[in-house]
Design goal:
The chain is built from 2 helices and no strands. With about 150 residues, it is mainly alpha-helical. The longest helix is centred in the middle third of the chain and has 122 residues.
Length: about 150
């Protein structure tokens, strides 16, 4: 006989064996063991199915969370870059304003020094006039008292 695909017959022995074994009283324990084995196998298949489903759902949740986190990070990066660009564009303006402030500060300081010198000069002149006035007053007083003594 040539080798090739052989016909395979798939027998569903589960129900046939169960009905046959159920009719045999002497094989009752064997039937119970077989049913227990089938039930155990069915529960194991269900458990595997649920574990597989749980893994699939968990993987989906993790994938969605990772995608969401990636989208948030990308949005943050874009916003951060935009704000950084805006801040960098302000630096030249800030630098120019600082230079203006330094220039005005120097002008103000030199004006205060000049005003202080002018004030000092005028104060010295005023004190000199006050001294002259005191000396003149003293001369007048001496003149008046010298006339009384005579």
């Amino acid at each position: 006989m040539p080798r090739g695909k052989e016909k395979t017959v798939n027998f569903d022995l589960q129900e046939d064996v169960l009905t046959f074994m159920g009719s045999q009283d002497s094989n009752g324990t064997f039937t119970q063991q077989y049913r227990a084995a089938l039930e155990k196998k069915k529960k194991e298949q269900q458990r595997k199915f649920f574990v597989s489903g749980k893994k699939s759902v968990t993987a989906g949740i993790i994938t969605d969370a990772a995608r969401s986190a990636e989208e948030l990070f990308q949005a943050f990066t874009i916003n951060y870059a935009a704000e950084d660009d805006r801040i960098r564009s302000l630096w030249p303006t800030i630098l120019e304003e600082e230079r203006k402030l330094q220039k005005l500060s120097k002008q103000f300081q030199s004006a205060i020094v000049k005003m202080g010198q002018a004030c000092e000069t005028e104060q010295i002149q005023g004190m000199a006039k006050a001294k002259d006035a005191v000396l003149e007053t003293q001369k007048v007083i001496e003149y008046v008292y010298s006339k009384k003594e005579l």
